[in-house]
Amino acid sequence: MDWMAWTLPTAAFFTAIALLLVGMTFAELHSPCIERRGFLPIATTRGDRLFIGLLVSAWVHLLVIGVTDWSLWVASLLSLLWLLIVLRWG
Amino acid sequence: MNKVPNNKAWWLVLPVFLLVAFSAVVPMMTVVNYSVQDIFDQSSRYFVGADWYRQVLLDPSLHDSLLRQFIYSGCVLLIEIPLGIAIALTMPARGRWSSLCLIVLAIPLLIPWNVVGTIWQIFGRADIGLLGATLSWLGISYNYATNTMDAWVTVLVMDVWHWTSLVALLCYSGLRAIPDVYYQAARIDRASAWAVFRHIQLPKMKNVLLIAVMLRFMDSFMIYTEPFVLTGGGPGNATTFLSQTLTKMAVGQFDLGPAAAFSLVYFLIILLVSWLFYTAMTHADKE
Hints:
The complex is a heterodimer of chains A (about 90) and B (about 290). With about 90 residues, chain A is an all-alpha fold. Helix content of chain A is about 70%, strand content about 0%.
């Protein structure tokens, strides 16, 4: 595994993604989700909302790096907030 | 009747999942790891956080090639999709002429990318190439190696020549799948040719068009070999597209960190645009 040049932050990131996917699988088994319409302009399933949440989070991080000189933690906090909102009401 | 959901079929996806894990997910994770470190050799590497991302996002030469890339992919889609539909509509539906058309259309698709570049490199030369010689005989000054506009037109026409067939073949298969009763109903209603196209053929071609648009967008956005062989990115940087800039960074200068950060930004752009296309086209008729 040495050639993959792991670092602690990236390992934590991928572990979090893997846990999210496992969590989504169990949530689906426990209560299968039905496509519905929230504040997003399209009908989405739970997985769609997670995908939209993560994609937007990635772009929020890039925006914060590219346009502002804020700390990255601001981007991460905003993303977490966005992820929760979009999963609950999206 | 009650359907019983059975998720055991997911186990059948396991081989593909493993294959993709090794061919895409593991390399991708490695790229993410590279993008946050300054790597000198295997034993000395330093965590630099988001520094490479900042450098890449603020780099004006990358902005330029990104802009060029969007213009190029936009032009490719604007030309190839309507042209492919038009070719599919004018092709004979059955008989030996349709087979001949299919074979002729398929030929450009069989030619490898670097050969396409070489073909056009010679084709466009003013001394020995058919296109270049004809143009200079007509008195039109044309040189793809020194003139920016000529280089652009050549790179675009080359892609149109290479890939419009794909769009045409996909649309052709979509058109053949429309049952005759639709056309009979249209004739009874005395629908015009445009109405038939707008309300029967186009909606029925939607799924193949979705595939065509996605494939052409992703392919043209990642284009490397043809412009590299034809113009080498020149004149100046006029036809240096994103993947060539990326290759220069990663292989030419061996700047693995910035190149990794840049390729992740590249990946996110393709992911976002493809997702937008897909969502827009699959949800268009649900509303």
